[in-house]
Request: fold
Amino acid sequence: MIGHQAQKLEELVSSTAAKKSKKTRFIAVTSGKGGVGKSTISSNLAYVLSQNGLNVGIFDADIGLANLDVMFNVKIKKNILHVLKGEASVSDILIPITRNLILIPGESGDEILKYSDKALFERFMSEAEILDKLDVMIIDTGAGIGDHIKMFIDAADDVIVVTVPDPAAITDAYATIKTIATFRDDINLIMNQVKSEKEAIAVYEKIKKVALANIGEKLNIKLLGKINSDIKVSSSVKQRALFSVMHPGSIVHKDILSIANAINKNLERDVLVMPSESGLSGLFKRLVKHF
Reply:
């Protein structure tokens, strides 16, 4: 039954593909364990990218601990599941954060097909076209490597694993990298809460060495950047504010800017994203293939 539904949805999604023209880069941000600052990095990265003139969407796919509303200090009443159930329109759930930044409240991937009525899904795909002008969509996934998290990671163009220089966190990050490597060989790493760039590189090299030895030489694992340990980050979170807004001249802001610049270079070399896969509807086109 579910397979039949998925086939119908995939046919429907494919039929809408010809209308798209904008390229959207999908970036999944994940971690081996919670509490390493994944959502803090996702939200600040989305903001900085939007300030660089890009149209950015940030999709909250951390279902168990969805907290981007806290990060952006906004209230969420409905999410994508309400749209698929016919209880809201796409425009109803979108939350503008800044001029070029939109928060998209998400729902677990394995819930999608429970409400896969063709008429509702067709309306959803049509309404989702309002997000087709997005240059980047940050997908803030849950920690760990559950099935729906793997689905988002596989659908993304770029994957970022966030970890901190703590033995337990490093072990969990490696386990996550090992799992991701079973279905893709390109992984980016962000070292959070480090004392210096030297420490970030040292931990990265340790993870890379073990990964290449045990997973294989085909794995391409890169250090995308680091975020220094700074009280400004935790104090901003407590105030329900972004550290990039609260402390624009800080080292941590410069760190996130550096990461954003690295992503901008990837956008300029954008050869992975098909023009037919745009915005929110483009993401769902990829996700449907997993059912």
The two ends are 11 Å apart (CA to CA). The mean pLDDT is 83. DSSP finds 13 helices and eight strands in the chain.
